[in-house]
Amino acid sequence: MNAELTIVVPTYNERENVIQLIDSLQLVLANESWEVIFVDDDSGDNTAALVREIARSDSRVRCIHRLKRRGLASASIEGILASASPYVCIMDADLQHDEKILPRMLEAIRTGQFELIIGSRYISTGSVGNLARYRTIISRLATLLGQQLLSNKIQDPMSGFFMLRRDYFEQIMHELSGKGFKILLDILASTRAPVRYLEIPYTMRNRLHGTSKLDSGVIWDFFALMLDKMLGRLLPVRFFMFVTVGLMGVLVHMLSLWSIYRLIGGEFLLAQITGTYLAMTSNYTLNNLFTYRDVKLKGRAFFRGLFSFYIYCSFGAFINLVLSEYLFEQDFPWWLAGILGAVSGSVWNYAVTAAFIWKVERP
Ligand code: GDD
Ligand code: MN
Q1: What angle in degrees, to the nearest 10, is found between the helix axes of 334-356 and 299-329?
Q2: For 118-133, what is the mean pLDDT?
Q3: What distance in angstroms lies between residue 184's CA and the mean position of ligand 2's atoms?
Q4: Does the N-terminal or the C-terminal CB of the chain have fewer CB atoms within 10 Å?
């Protein structure tokens, strides 16, 4: 018989938490039909190997081992898709989510009155526990921002702990962005019809072992998700980021031009060339860090990418010059010729670097 409830646990370096988590699930779900799927992104600490070892003697435990991929949201989605249960629950591996509310979540979802049950830190007796002060503030702020995206009054749309019906998930799964950390927000923002939900309070515990993967990049991811949901259908977010980075590149360029030409009194051409390459280098580095964070190039691949970036973007500059010069001669106003040249250069740069450097098929 297939399990009634699948618990999907994304893991990245959580080896020390796995056994204790399974033990506590076993305890609270003793009378239920459940399974747990760990979705591990090739953790250096061999979390996946440990899960497989346990799986050999416990058929309720499974492991999806992903290579060359990262991401809490995409891991959660793949875990859900790998199961067949009518109910699925997403939960962290680090024991911060209180498994003792699982039976109540299950009971509530079985009534058929709700599509979604959320473990909530922000209603009645729920709390963030002893979460570091700055994390509490960030979490609160993100919650307020996230709520702007939603038409309902969910108190904890950032929760990483929730249960949902499979049929509901299947209705919205094609709309998901799958980027970043905020899978619940992603789900909620992808739901057109109002969702019937229930929040159940819990107190977040401290992480016992290992470290949090939430870093400043995650905050960037969060804004990317917000943007994607707000204007994703009009304009690809990556292009938007690419252009933002490009604008910063203009700043870098002008700053170095000014310091070499005006400040030190160097040759104009030399200053212009140095400025161009400095701007390309900073553009490449920033795009690698942010625009393509999910497929970031490291080590030798980073430098190979940088070199190709110089070459592709030089073509972009060429297209820009030739086109704007042509339009200018056709009596286009100077500013329009300039903009059209710059835009086609950027579209070229974006398209080829997306396809050949970061190798994302659908940028
Ligand atoms: N497969 C995979 N890939 N798992 C990941 C990745 C990844 O790239 N990054 C993190 N995880 C796993 C962690 O191993 C952990 O089990 C879970 O996702 C949450 O990561 P933490 O690093 O513990 O996140 P957090 O505690 O700072 O934030 C969590 O709690 C918040 C409040 O409930 C997350 O669940 C947030 O989404 C949530 O808002
Ligand atoms: Mn955690």
Answers
A1: 150
A2: 83
A3: 15
A4: N
Cβ burial, residue 136 (10 Å; 0-12/13-18/19+): middle
Measuring CA to CA, which residue among 100, 80, 290, 103 is closest to residue 184?
80
Nearest atom in ligand 1 to the alpha carbon of residue 41 is 1
Interatomic CA distance for residues 37 and 79, integer angstroms: 6
Per-residue confidence band for 44, with pLDDT thresholds at 50, 70 and 90: very high
CATH code for the domain defined by 5-230 = 3.90.550.10
Contact between 159 and 118 under an 8 Å Cβ cutoff? The reply is yes
Local structure of residue 359 (DSSP, 8 states):
-
pTM, rounded to two decimals:
0.70
189 CA from centroid of ligand 2 (Å): 23
The Cα–Cα gap between 110 and 48 comes to 31
Distance (Å) from CA 75 to ligand 1 centroid: 10
Mean pLDDT of all residues in 30-55: 97
Mean pLDDT of the region 136-144 = 79
> Would you list the domain boundaries of the chain?
5-230, 237-356
